[in-house]
Amino acid sequence: MDLGIAGKSALVCAASKGLGKGCALALAKEGANVTLVARTPATLEQAAEEIRKATGVRVNIVAVDLTTPQGRAAALAACPNPDILVNNNGGPPAGDFREWDREVWIKALDANMLTPIELIKATVDGMIARKFGRIVNITSAAVKAPIPILGLSNGARTGLTGFIAGLARQTIMHNVTINNILPGLFQTETMMGRIDAMARQSGKPVEQVAQDRIKTIPAGRFGDPQEFGQLCAYICSAQASFITGQNFLIDGGAYPGTL
C-alpha cells in the first residue's frame, strides 16, 4: 500500500538508534525525506548512512540536546517545515519517588513532556497552513499500566498524553493528526542495558533475566524496532487522516485489559 507520504519531510527525534531509528527507516522507505536528531554525532551519522543506503532518500542529521532552546532551534533550522514530527526521548531513571527532588522532576518533565510540546508548538501551525501534518509521540506502555519504579516516566508521559488529548481534537479538521505510540518491551540497546543491570543486581545470568522478561509477553518475544517503525509510518500516512488523539499500545499482548 502506498502511504502517500513520498516527498514529505520528517523530523525524527532520538533517531540514532532503537525505536526512533526504526521510525526514521520506515518513513524513509515510504519516500519521506528525514532529519535525524540525537546527541551523539557518530551514531547519528552511522544511522543516517544505513538509511541512505537502504532507501536512497535525503537524510540530514543534527547532533543537539533537544531539551534546550538552542537544540530545538538547530533542529528546526535543519528541517524548518516538517510535514511529520516524531517526538521521542529516552526515559528518565527508575527509582523511589522519595529520592527525587524538584530538579530531578523538572529534568524528567523537560525531556518527556515539555520538549515535545515545544516542538509541536513550533511546527503545528505550519502543518495547519499546508493542510497536512502528522505528529507522533513515542511514550510508553507505562502510560496505560504504570510501573511503580518508573514514577518519573509515568508522570511526565501521562502529562503529555493528557495535553495531546485536548490538542488533537483541534487540529484534525485541518488534516493534522496527533497520536501517541506506547511501546512495551523492544529489542533495543536501552532495554538490553536495563536487563544487564537487572542481571548484575540479581546475580542471575543475562540470558535468564531476558527469558524471564519474555515470559511476561504473550507473543513470546521482544518487539522489533522495525515493526514499531512500520506502525509509526502508517499513523503518519495519508490513509490515517481520520485517526487522532489515540494511544496505540504495541506490547505483544502484555497489557491484559480490554480497554
User: Approximately how much beta-strand content do the residues carry?
Assistant: 5-15%
Q: Classify the helix fraction into a percent range.
A: 40-55%
**Residue-averaged pLDDT:** 96
The Cα radius of gyration reads 18 Å
Main-sheet strand order equals 3-2-1-4-5-6-7
Please give the largest β-sheet.
7 strands, parallel
Number of helices: 8
Order of helices and strands: EHEHEHEHEHEHHHE
* Protein structure class: alpha/beta
Overall spatial form: globular
Low-pLDDT segments: none
N- to C-terminal distance: 29 Å
**Number of beta strands:** 7
Describe the structure.
It is a single chain. Strand 1 (9-13), helix 1 (18-29) and strand 2 (33-38) form a beta-alpha-beta unit. The radius of gyration is 18 Å and the shape is globular. Helix 6 (189-202) crosses helix 7. The relative contact order is 0.15. The chain has helices at 18-29, 41-55, 69-78, 102-130, 151-171, 189-202, 206-214, 225-235; strands spanning 9-13, 33-38, 59-63, 84-87, 133-138, 176-183, 247-250. With 259 residues, the chain is of the alpha/beta class. Helix content is 47%, strand content 15%. The chain contains eight helices and seven strands; from the N terminus they run βαβαβαβαβαβαααβ. The chain starts with 8 loop residues before the first strand and ends in a 9-residue tail after the last strand.
Short précis:
With 259 residues, the chain is an alpha/beta fold. It has eight helices and seven strands.
